[in-house]
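User: Sequence recovery, please. Input:
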């Protein structure tokens, strides 16, 4: 079997006296679509933040290939989030002052792509997600479903190895949610991008190759382990 793209081993993350993660372990394989569900407050978002390098766990390891992401500095993790990972949140993640096109072009511009090439790439991804007609609009002028499709385009535009999506349909009605999910899964499969999808919607989990459940800061079926 191919080695995992990203692996978390025995993650512990504390916020004050609250243990958000208590020995969580999870593997995300290349090209795999993994749905992570579990009760509210169980640690799903914290796990996603650790795997994607947004936060560093207090204990445990996050391996990205041979690289220890949990030990990587802020600069390296920021670079990885721009080049290798795409991240989609429930809402509020687009830059309000920028048009849809500029929002999607932004990761390419930050990576040093020329303005013309960044806009061409952005337009292509807006087209794939069916929102090219809204390229000149700002996030406030888009519906929730349209804004999420723009956010997906922004997450995919750099050709990431993995997309992390934290309840991307959580604020949408069921039809818009289904359109967003279908678009994400289709695009990810076509591009061979792995997806870690946090959701508490059973319907959404049905799009995944595999499901994992988080409970009390650990992943079920993966023994809670604390590394020393
Ligand atoms: P989920 O995404 O499953 O709802 P979270 O990972 O957001 O769970 O949160 C797990 C626990 O950690 C919750 O009790 C939450 O209140 C706490 N927590 C998460 N992030 C923070 C934070 N930045 N500061 C303080 N507590 C936090
Ligand atoms: Mg959450």
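Assistant: Recovered sequence (228 residues):
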């Amino acid at each position: 079997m191919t080695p995992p793209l990203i692996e978390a081993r025995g993650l512990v993350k504390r916020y004050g006296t609250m243990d958000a993660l208590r020995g969580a372990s999870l593997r995300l394989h290349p090209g795999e679509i993994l749905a992570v569900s579990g009760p509210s407050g169980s640690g799903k978002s914290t796990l996603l933040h650790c795997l994607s390098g947004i936060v560093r766990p207090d204990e445990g390891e996050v391996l990205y290939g041979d690289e220890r992401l949990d030990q990587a500095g802020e600069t390296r993790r920021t670079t990885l989030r721009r080049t290798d990972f795409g991240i989609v949140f429930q809402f509020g993640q687009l830059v309000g002052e920028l048009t849809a096109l500029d929002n999607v072009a932004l990761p390419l511009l930050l990576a040093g792509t020329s303005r013309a090439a960044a806009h061409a790439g952005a337009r292509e991804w807006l087209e794939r997600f069916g929102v090219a007609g809204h390229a000149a609009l700002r996030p406030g002028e888009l519906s929730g479903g349209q804004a999420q499709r723009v956010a997906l385009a922004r997450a995919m535009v750099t050709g990431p190895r993995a997309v992390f999506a934290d309840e991307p349909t959580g604020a949408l009605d069921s039809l818009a949610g289904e359109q967003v999910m279908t678009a994400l899964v289709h695009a990810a499969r076509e591009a061979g991008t792995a997806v870690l999808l946090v959701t508490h919607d059973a319907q959404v989990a049905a799009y995944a190759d595999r499901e994992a459940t988080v409970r009390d800061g650990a992943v079920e079926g993966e023994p809670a382990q604390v590394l020393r």
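The CA atoms of residues 104 and 154 lie 4 Å apart.
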